[in-house]
Amino acid sequence: MERYTHNVGDNMISYTDQGVGHCVVLIHGFCGDSHYWKYIVPQLAKKNRVLTVDLRGHGDSSTPKDDFEITDLAEDIASLLSSLRIERATLIGHSLGGYISMAFAEKFPDKLCGLSLVHSTALPDTAEAKVNRDHGIERITNSGIKPFIDELVPKLFSKNNNEELDYQLKLVKNIGYKTSEFGAIGALNAMKHRPDRNVVLEELKVPILLVVGRDDGVIPHDRTFSVDKPNIHRSIIENSGHMSMLEQPDKLSEVLQVFLEGVIDSKMK
């Protein structure tokens, strides 16, 4: 898979660009990278132009020099789209990627054709989650990224799948090890301080897809399904935790393909 780079200020953003047609941007979660979508991209790229982006401090992108907010990461996506002369796109964000998608929707609604939150939420961190962010920062600061990732990754998968998905568990750990410590700490702080964007979800007019894993132990279903209105579609992926793109890629691909067909139809009306 050929990779490209785009500079946003002092930050180098690594990305891939495959297929032709309606533009879809896949945004990975915390301590992940573009490889999270390795099974999804070939399916979506059959009928769409699919971009995958490595966030600041993640994957092959550069380590940021300064602290950043979720909105800064959304602006990275907007800058990339502008450089590629893509006027509008559908954003599909996993976990942290969903928070970024919501920030993008708030700041650049005219650039959005559709939005999907995959194991994510428009709501801010709970008090308990904020405490856990601080614990994560302390863990990385004191012990480095590897022990933190080793503790984190098994929690992302359904307990029913851990033995069957040994390869995927190792893949996610190896991806996580590549995350810079400053990038991981910056992302934890950004997630901790992100505002409530549920009103953005309530006001968006474009097609929206909310996806949960039946066994997701990270984000409860009610925090994903926080708004109910006609342009919002819901999907529950069975036998999946927080990582359906790796646990149940065929099921997630099918759900996303149907959603994107609806997005394209809505554009033509």
TrEMBL record:
Tell me the keywords, alphabetical order: Hydrolase
Query: Origin, by domain of life?
Result: Bacteria
User: What Gene Ontology terms describe what this protein does at the molecular function level?
Assistant: hydrolase activity
Coiled coil residues, start to end = none
Pfam families (UniProt xref): Abhydrolase_1
SUPFAM superfamilies to which the protein is assigned, alphabetical: alpha/beta-Hydrolases
Q: Which GO terms describe its cellular component?
A: membrane
Could you identify this protein by its name?
Answer: Alpha/beta hydrolase
Q: Where would I find the AB hydrolase-1 domain in this sequence?
A: 24-248
